[in-house]
Structures
1.
Amino acid sequence: MRSTIRLRQTVIRLMFFWFLAVFFVIILSPRYKLKKTATYTPEKTIPEWDIEIFENRLVRMQLFPVAEQRQMIKIVFGKQPELKEFILERFNLTGNGSNVGGRMANRLGTKVEIAGQNVADIPNRRTKYVLNTEDNCTYQSPFVLILVHSRWSNVDRRYFIRNSWASIKSYNNYTIKTVFLLGLPSDGLSGEKQKTIVREYRECDDIVQGEFVDEYRNLTIKHLMAYQWTLSHCRRVAFVVKVDDDTIVNVFRLIEFLTSADNILSRKNDVIYCSAFVNQGPRRDERDKWFVSKSEYSQDKYPTYCEGFAYITTLDVMARIHNASLVTPAFWIDDVFVTGVLAKAAGVRHKQFQRFYGYTIIGRRLPEHLIKRNLFFLQKHFINDTIMVGMWKKIFDQYKLKT
């Protein structure tokens, strides 16, 4: 009996020393040293996107990684062969196609796609800035960033916003920043119309203007430019709000909601909070202003998408949607494309505005009890400046703030 116990103990000791020896052999081997030296540190300067070719196949990198991956992991196979070998072996990335990207995504928390596409087939969605506010989020990151989509000619609306709800820069010690997104007037960069925008920009320093004509069919470009700018310039903002310039934001209620237990966005990183359209389809009547041909959109139903006047989201959601836009053919109705088609492709869900945290349509009369409970107020089909000014005064007075 004792001899059997001693034999077992001897075998266990031998196995222990054998595993220890193998471990040190592996650690000290040149192969392992190569892998250690090939580890990659993300660059301090985050490029906006990157497309590389590997073995005649396109490799699309996710440039703004979601969740904890706050810096881009840039893998340039061709220029760093040791890094290529390290990545392929370290993560067991063998074979071609979507399985490779899937395994990489599971291990890195970022997304790599390898597809049999030519680079020319990938739309270049990078919009150049004609004007870019210097008062960005570099030095002080706001709690909430409000992106106002505005036509270049809507100067009066922008000044109304600046003098009303956008004048509130902080509430309950939470900071708010507002930026206006514009395109070019029809006479281009050198015309008199552009000169008026430049003067407004120099006075207010809150405009981001893209190098595209500001017309309805280019709203998708403006929408994606807003995402591009936010992801590049406001990387630490907690929440992002998109509104049109005919919408009043109850910034006081907004802060109360975003800091409350009711805020689903603080618990989920895949949600857009909005007034969502479900089971809506394209209009096929050629006489309709919103006519969409089969060649523009072939399906009978749109994915669930947000009404364009306002929605709330996070940087993680914007990153997902931005990345999906890099390989998705564009569609001119921006609300459908960005918050519908791209959101679906990116795995983003829609959360309908909740009771007491939603919106209302304003007219000449609005019950007082509706004012303090809503986040957004809008006018449909017409804009009456007097009503808009009166609406803001009612909101402001309810919170009993001094001007």
2.
Amino acid sequence: MKIHYNPKLKYHARELRKKGVLSEVLLWNHLKGRKMRGCQFMRQKPVGDYIVDFYCTTPFIPPLLRGTEGVVIEIDGESHDGRFLYDMERQRVLESMGLRLLRFSDSDVKRDISSVLMAIEGWIEKIGQPPLTPFIKGELPT
């Protein structure tokens, strides 16, 4: 299933990427360029009618988690203060699209990035990960 987005959000997402909140930049340095187990993450990505902090599609999903279309990582900082109901509705909508959400606090990313990275890696291991190298013609995974 292809995840659609509101094209009107494209420019705003680009502006958000330029601004760069510190915690997002710190995490992005560990996710960009397929550094996280070969998974391709996108930053400030329009998804549906929202812009999510990080988005990754999941092409290699075990049967247990079929229906998962990707993962969204959200960093909750000051901009999320007082927006609990909005965030919960937003999460409900994104999950109804087949996305799994991982939430981290701004302070956790700044103070303990290694634990955040371990949690993300754990999720990738749970859903299965893409092979790090392409298969040679005729070679099957074991």
3.
Amino acid sequence: MKKNIFKQIILKFILSFVLILLINLLIFTICVLNIKNNHSVSERIDTIMNHVSVTNSAITLDEKGQSLLKQKKLWLLAIDNKTGKVQYSYQKPQAIPNQYFYTEVAKFSRYYLNDYPVFTYAKGNYLFVIGFPKNSYARYSNNYLSISMIKKIPFIFLLTILLNCAYFILLYIYSNYRLRKKILPLVKMIMQLPNGLSSSIKPIYGLEEIIQALEQTDNKLKEEQKFRQDWIAGIAHDIKTPLSIVLSNVAIAKDYAHNPELNKYLDPILTETYYIQNVLNDLNIFARLNNQACSLQKENIYILSFIKEVIIQILNQEIWENIDIAFHAEEDLKNVSLQLDPFLFSRVIHNLIYNAILHNPDGCQITISLTKINEKICLTILDDGIGVTNEQLKQLNTLDDQPFDIAFIRTTGIGLYISKKIIQLNNGRMVLSSKYKEFFKVEIFL
């Protein structure tokens, strides 16, 4: 994997570097060729001088030569080698003298004549001077350079820099796109790991070892999740048997003991035993809900009769001496059925009622109502107990947004946490409201 990825990255950057060098070399070559083509002064002078005839009696420039001079805005003069006088001129500017000394000839043959870039050509007994427009060429010693080309050099340089920048920006965008295309699926898989991967990972070239590691991690997490679920289920099953014995013996003792002082000790044992039994059921469900592989066993249940049966089961425990439970339902809901997991939904009702009883040791009135609101079935469980503060209510409403600490199972409300999860899995919504020392209300919309 390392070899493949780094080999690809290094190879691509080497190729990119070579490519940009070739592009720069191409630009440089084009510029040089352009300079060469535009600056062939010697060829132009040779062409013009081919149209100049020198005889003993006169110097003549044919029509073709005159046309070339006019077209290029050039001028021509012939200086006698012996006298230094101008013997012939064509389109000579007025500022150009008609007599020259050897020192003057030596100077302008290398540089300028009255700011005109000039070039010399010896033919016969004459020195021909061909003048170019001012600011057309830059003369330095025996060489020259086009002024227009000199002016273009900064633009060419800037254009080259811009092309290089554009190239590297496009290279960055392309590399980023390719990298994201490869890495994004991996990021999504890593984010899915806590919940378990739902499907096998498609192979990605160059990332085989990472994908293999992700699959191994996913399998290990699923194995640990299954082990945890099986372990909790086994513990719950092992504890339920002695709990059942304790419950039955305490219930028998209460039936035969008519001593109020003794009942004072038996009632808490019975209550806490039921509480432990309920917690074990919740832990079992908690492990099941945290296993993403679990599926709901939904059935079509008549909601009204189902809730009545659950309430009767709770009342039959006969341990709620200070608790009054009242149930109200709209008559037209008698034949209404919903697709729910009956076991899990039963746990929701148990948890919410147990929660009201547990947090009101001095007793309270629990009112359960079933109504229809805006095409939704609403189950309301209201108690007139001590309620909770605004801060506690806020904490309860955000239970599913924060990691659940099993160490504080009795105080943080595992029953509410699990109930909310179950309702969400059944496509419902649970709303909590309370006023301290007045009431606590849970509304479930299905």
4.
Amino acid sequence: MADGVTVSSSVWRHYECMKAVRFSMSEYQQDDTDSTSSSDARKPEARGQEKKCSWASYMTNSPTMIVMMGLPARGKTYMSKKLTRYLNWIVFNLGVYRRDAVKAYKSYDFFRHDNKEAMKIRKQCALVALEDVKMYLNEGGQIAVFDATNTTRERRDLIINFVHENSFKVFFVESVCDDPEVIAANILEVKVSSPDYPEAHRERVMDDFLKRIECYQVTYQPLDPEEYDKDLSFIKVMNVGRRFLVNRVQDYIQSKIVYYLMNIHVHSHSIYLCRHGESEHNVQGRIGGDSELSPRGRQFARVLREFVEEHKLSDLKVWTSQLRRTIQTAEELGVPYEQWKILNEIDAGVCEEMTYEMIQNTLPEEFALRDQDKYHYRYPGGESYQDLVQRLEPVIMELERQGNVLVVCHQAVMRCLLAYFLDKSAGCKVEMFHLNVEAVNTHRERPMQGKVKRESAPQLLRRNSYTPLSSHDQDSVCEGINFDYSDELNNCFHF
């Protein structure tokens, strides 16, 4: 099994961003409701030649602006922040700009289309947010998410002109929902705690917010794939993922957005991550292999069953790798389980079933290379953590779309899953359960100056990286999550 590592959420970053955005759970589903409305609704005429996107003039790697749109309480901010976690982009939420400009929110009257003073404030907030988007993307950012209602063609044309002037790409994500139960649940779960309603009564919040939605419905102009918006790239997400409409996907990043949005759901569910019980190779200090559980490992599996029974986890799916130590841990549960090959431990190649001392003595150069860049280092004939992250993406997608799941996995696999789910922008609540079963410590302390003494080795170049790193990335890629794995064999993590 792999030794200790510090893994940050940036290992999931597919594109370089200047900043990471962090959100608390209270912010996670607060839908923005600010968009310029217009009483002069245009007739649905087709876009003229001057309005068509000049896709051919864009560079392949031009920065992309993701534009959320839809009526309030449709889960736009929820989706935008899930996307942010997935690829570590930055979100510009127009509601934040509006609340900064108008400190005291009074009522739904602020969102009436005939409130000219409020209309002026909201448009100015949008322009300020767009300038921030421009600054961010021009300074090296690759993806920006513009989170607002954007329900009128006037507002969307303003955005389209903005991206054309700055040679950005644009992709719209429209959330459509006509299920009153879903809308009411979203208002009660999210809007009651919104900064717009401090210390407000639940019934008053519901009444005011429903009136706010009515203000937007007066001028709401959905995307029209047949005529007016046929040349735009977008996805419509209908009734929280029951149906989708995808139009003119232009590039890889847009296809990734579609892929991700078609795999998530907004219903709450629990994910339990559990490392397998102690194995015979753990006791011997050997990494990898396919050994069976030790006696203490079998004891851990029995205690895990008691934990599952005690918590009455209904409709729980159990996933394991195809290695014996996870299968034997799950078999004690007495429930059906699924085996996933992609959940197997990181492949140590020629170093499989060796101890760290053996690796240092027989392959000193490899040992030193791994210490210098653990995330990108690939075992000869094996994998790197970067390889493992890419291998695990289908599991991430399935965990996003499933109900309650218990994943019995391995040390390196668990680190990568935790790096994804523990990102603060995810807004996940994490609980750790100690099952109090003795186990060996498989953690090897990360070599740092002044902490771990080791025979000096020459500085060696990083090897086997898929993509080159900037100096900034080299400094930051391994900052973030650091766990004490002395207790890891005894722990379950709950999200």
